Amino acid sequence: MAYPDAAADAPTGLDRALLVLVGVMVLGGMMSYLDATIVNVGISTLGARFDASLATVEWVTTGYLLAVALAIPLAGWATVRFGAKRMWLLGLSLFLVGSALCAAAWNAPSLISFRVVQGLGGGMVDPIMMAVVADAAGPARIGRVMGLISFPITLGPVLGPVVGGLLLENLAWEWMFLVSVPFAVAAIVLAILVLPPDPPRDATPVPLDALGMATLCPGFAALVFALSQAGSHGFSSIRVLAGLLVGTVLFVVYAAHALRTAAIPLLDLRLFASRAFAAAITVMFLVGGGLFSLLFLLPLYYQQVHGHTVLESGLLLAPLGLGAMIGMPVAGNLADRMGARVLVPTGALLVCAGALLFTRSDAGTSQVPLTIAQLAIGFGLGLVGAPTMGSVYRTVPPTTVAAATGAVFILNQLGASLGVSVVALILQDGGVHTAATTASFGHAFWWPFAAGLVVFAAGFLLPGRPAPAAGRVPATEAVPGSTASG
User: Fold this and answer.
1) Considering only CA atoms, which of 14, 183, 181 is closest in space to residue 101?
2) Contact at 8 Å (CB) between 126 and 207?
3) C-beta neighbour count of 431 within 10 angstroms
4) What value does the mean pLDDT take over residues 440-445?
5) Whole-angstrom Cα distance, residue 38 to residue 423?
6) In 3D, which of 11, 15, 35, 13 has the Cα closest to residue 23?
7) What is the rounded distance in angstroms from the CA atom of residue 440 to the CA atom of residue 429?
8) How confident is the model at residue 253 (pLDDT cuts 50, 70, 90)?
9) C-alpha span between 198 and 332 (Å, rounded)
């Protein structure tokens, strides 16, 4: 069964207090997601500035995304232990410090290190934003609120290359990171004023899953490292094989621990017993992989295949953002009436159609069909994101919402890290700075196409249209451990 998503007497309108809270949280979330891709358009610039290869500069993006994935599980535990407002402010402060340090970087390794600091702050912000807003909205309003929250998740990464292009065209590279500073300060001040105070701490502290931290997080890092090195050294190299082996072993150890422990694991694998939840997580994993791989590919594609400037390549990504801006409110309004099972497969087909066009494009392809393809991809991503996020909260017991939120963001960011690594691997293997560039990009665009196909299939396992409010059972009567049949 699907878990009830509203009590009969739950508020159904989006009141002013809720909208103000959503606005404050979106400011912090948008800043984090914007900075995840703001450097994508400047990959070539940073490589030239620090005399670094694509395999090295890729870690300016991958290191940030991986740090986000590593911080999310800790954020879930720390929020329960210390309170959402405290951890939100700590995450924003870390992000602020990391941004300033990135602008002061003197070489590629220092920049990558400071991006990790920035990513740790961003990783704390994302799940707290979702959990706070979901709790304030209540199940009856979750679909519409997810439509609003999807703005930073989908639109922030899309706007990153556009903003980066504008900054690089008119200012020094440091401003790709300094631009976040005033927004971080504003987000901190508004959070102090608007967020409700944390409740008194529980006398019994929530224990940290130390074994989970020692296996799951390094497992992520080892896998992404192996993929990032495969393009330069091949899959037969010792470092790649070692990374894959270490990552696999750590994942197996973590899985055995998470399924057997009586305590709360870092990532609760038992939630995946719900078919609908597993489908939603799969969709969010592939949305992260497909979206971020596209945002890594497209600026390089426009610069190296079509010969556009940094600013032009950033502005040419605007149709992707425009499509997402149109698709997200449409999906938010329809999610509570139609359900994810209709909207997600439709959006996935649009993503596939747009990516397919790019696999067949070359230097002579007109910009008109490419623009239309980006509009379709953006609109499709908008139709996928909000309904999927809303369905997550309808397919798990109320007591596991925090764990489900952490799982969503961990898998979404891991998908983003792996997606960037996969397409960078394809480009390096094909020779991104050689005459084979066009063919290499054509091969790389098959990755988001394949991700869209899997999302299309998984979408049919998501919940259908929500039941009418009058017929819902109060959330307190849900039976923990049941699975959602959709």
Assistant:
1) 181
2) no
3) 12
4) 82
5) 18
6) 15
7) 8
8) very high
9) 29
- The rounded radius of gyration (Å) of the Cα atoms in the chain is 21
pTM: 0.69
Residue in the structure block whose two tokens are 């939603």:
280
Q: Burial code of 168-194, b = ≥16 C-beta within 10 A, e = fewer?
A: beeeebebbbbbbbebbeebbebbeee
Yes or no: say if 269 and 255 are a contact pair by the CB < 8 Å rule: yes
Nearest to 289 by CA among 119, 444, 457: 444
- φ and ψ at residue 473, rounded to 5 degrees: -95, 140
Q: Which amino acid is at 463?
A: P
Mean pLDDT over each residue of the chain, to the nearest integer: 77
pLDDT of residue 392: 74
Q: Which pair of tokens denotes residue 213?
A: 């931290």
- pLDDT, one tens digit per residue, over 333-371 is 776 677 778 888 999 999 999 999 998 888 888 889 999
Nearest to 60 by CA among 110, 95, 94: 110
| pLDDT recorded at residue 484 | 34
Strand ranges in 278-382 using DSSP code E only, listed in sequence order: none
Give me 300's structure tokens.
Answer: 């390089």
* Per-residue b or e along 318-345, where b marks 16 or more CB atoms closer than 10 Å to that residue's CB: bbbbbbbbebbbbbbebbbebbbbbbbb
